[in-house]
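User: Show me a protein chain along with its predicted structure.
Assistant: Here is one chain, sequence first, then structure tokens.
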Amino acid sequence: MPECGMLIVSDLHLEKGSGAAARGRLVPALDSYDTLARLRRVVEAWRPRRVVCLGDSFHDGAAGARMAAADRAALVSLCALAEEWIWIGGNHDPDAPDFCEGVRLMDLRVDGVVLRHEPDKDHQPGTKRVTPEIVGHFHPKARLNAGSASFSGPCFCVSDDLMILPAFGTYTGGLSCSAPVLRALHGNEPRLFMLHGDKVWRVA
């Protein structure tokens, strides 16, 4: 949101790799390094005054303790690049680790829009939201078929009163925007904007 000097990202899921490795899954525990490096490039490119991490920034309550010293230092230096860093609580991480600089909130209101991890649970499907929301949580993805080729990737899922952000983390996976649980959240047909090849494409 350039007019607010704000960068919003969601679902970093830092240390998902180390959590999986601890449970015997053979995946390299390098996701935090990659996610933080990409986030640094974005922050350095846009130079926001405020960064908002929209929940599930850490994969679980022990993620901070598992984080390598170099990754922890990278995160601390990254937080110093913005005047204000806000950690919104998610279902995986109600509280960011103590070493993380910044403000802890469950939601944030900006210019009449509420930023939170999950949509308002009291909202009735099929009705217009009283307050528009920007949320994460669902890791929306889209798939396009073009002849013999197909493309799949994270996307923004947007309707008149709800924007669901794509997950930023390296090991986050995704949920199809055609899934009933996502379609039911929108009062009108959502518009899909896919991230592909360093660009954002309107695909539906």
